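## tool: complex_structure
## caller: assistant
## args:
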Amino acid sequence: MKLERRKVPPEIFTGSMADVTFLLIIYFMVTMAFSATKGLDFQVPKEDTSKQVQLEREEAVEVKVTPQGTYLVDGKPMALSQFADYLKTKIVPGKLVDGKPVIEKPVILRPDPQVPYGAMMDAFDELRQVKDKLGLGKDLNISLPTQREIENLWGALGAL
Amino acid sequence: MIRVRRVGRKADPYIPTASMADIVFLLIIFFIVTYNIEVDKAKVQLPRTAVRTDVPREAAYVSVDTEGIIRVSGGKETSVPVSSVEEVQTFAQNVVAQNPEKAFVVKADKNTRYQVIDKILDALKQARVKTIFLLSEQRTISDRT
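## result:
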C-alpha cells in the first residue's frame, strides 16, 4: 500500500524575525547613554619656554574669579556681561585677520582655589563667546595656568 | 440581460510583513553605529555653558562627583575610583604613552572647589595631554539673569 504524503512547501519562517529585531532595538535604545557628550575644549599649550613670556602681567588681560564668585578683570570688578565691552578696548588698532579685528593680548583666567567650578566655567564660557560678540577674526588666546605653573613662574621671576 | 459573474481568485486580505525585518535591521545598524557607551556613571550636576564642542568618541574620562570622589576611565571601560590626584597623573601618563593624541574629558560637579579641578588639570598637563574637554550642559536662557 502506498501512503499519501502531503507535500510541505519549503520555506524559512521569517514572521518572528521582526519581533526579535524589535527586541534588540529596544535593548539598544534603553542602554544608550543620553549623557552629555559636549563641553568646552581647550588646547594645552605646548611646553615652550618662549611662551612663558605671555604670563607677564602687563602683556595680558587678567581675569580673576574671587572667592565670593565675583570677577576682577585687570583688577577692576566687572560683571560677566561687561567682559566683551572691556576686551573691545584691547583690539589691536588697524590689524585685521580675514577683514576682522583681532585681540592679540592673551587672556589669563585665574580662579581662586575656593571658587566653585561652575563660576570658573561661567567666566571661561563668557570669554569664549567674546569672539562672536565682537566679530573677531580669531579666537581669544585664553590660558588657564594651574597653581603649580604660577608658583613655578614666580619662582623663576624671583631667581632673575 | 447577462449577469456578469466575477471570476478569479479572491485575494486574501493581509499586510505584507516581509520587509519589516529589513527596516528593523536598518534601525539596529543605526543604533549600533551611533552607540555611545557611558563609561562614567557618576551623577554630577554639570556646569552650563553656551559654547560647546563635541567630545571625540572614546575620549578618556576624569570625573569628580558631588562627594569629591575622583574616577578615571580610558574611554572604553567603566570608570574606576582613584585615591589621589597623583594616581590621575600616572593613569594619564599611561594613556598618553599609548596614544599621544588622546583627548581627556573632565566631568566635574559645578559645586566642586576649583582647587580640585586645578590639581587635575595640572596632572593632565604634566602628563602631556594635548586636548582637554570640560564637560558641560547646554546653557539655557533662564540660567543667568
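## assistant note: The longest strand of chain B covers residues 103-108. Chain B touches chain A through 56 residues (CB under 8 Å). Handing back to user.
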